[in-house]
TrEMBL record:
Gene Ontology cellular-component annotations: plasma membrane
Source species of the chain: Halocalculus aciditolerans
Transmembrane portions of the chain: 22-48, 95-120, 132-155, 175-202, 223-245, 251-270, 282-304
Family named by the database record: Belongs to the binding-protein-dependent transport system permease family.
Protein name stated in the entry: ABC transporter permease
Amino acid sequence: MTETPPADADGEPTDDSERGRLAALTSGLTAGRAALYALLAGLVVFYLSPLEAGLMTAFKTTDAFTHTAPIAPPGPGGFTTEPWKTAFATLKSGLINSVILAVPAAALSALFGSLAAYGLTNLKWRGQVPIVLLFVAGIFIPYQAVLVPLSRFFAIVNTQQLLEPLWGLPLMEPYYASLVNLIITHTAYGIPLTMLLFRSYYKNFSTEMLEAARLDGATAYTIYRRIILPLSVPMFAVTLIYQFTQIWNDLLFALIIIPSGSGQAAVVTLKLNELTGGIVQTFNTQMAGAFVAAIPTLIVYVLFGDKFARGVAGQ
């Protein structure tokens, strides 16, 4: 039975009760727990100090960066936002191209991965196991192994010529053909992993529920659209966030597939190279550019982080 703490005439806890509660809390703080808190605090400082140094550098003038420690804040007269303005002006077109690339590529790889997982998990047909093994093998193919075949494939298949009727439409530009090539590549490369994630998720679905739908006359497509797809929202959040981050940060495929690795179709990871500053290194502008390039992925995690956590936990 819980004892009621002593109270004064107005029913408020007395100083004795407050002191007792404080003593109980401090008595629970053992040496081991204090060491654990100190270790956690040290890890937080260790992992966040590079970010803090980068942020401080991005707000410093070149002279302040030279005469202060990277982790120290800019002193009087050393604060400036000019690196951020320069970085955003340089990366603006790359940010737009990366959005045009990452959003459809992430959505398509998640959708096709879901459809493949449904067909390989909740439908019964011969030859499923070899197909699953092929998908799993696709996860382990390194980027470097497909660079030459990819460059040869898109040298033979002229996407810009195939999509020529589209370039006359409003907001459509011929250089988008390079982004289409990247969307196709990232979609194909992402399907094996998304299929595996969806397959592990669909294995937990009730077979009785799906069998009841079949007995009611529902086709495979109807079951997917009416039952599987609505229940897949948590896993779609996981795959979309993961794929968006991977595609946004990709440099290798963009460097190979986009002609000359730059130009109008350059994505943000390629445009970062334009902030190097030539002979004189502008570290403040480079750090500002790195943060500008990372902002979209941070926004995605902040907005959908809870859904990502629930999807990973299978809730």
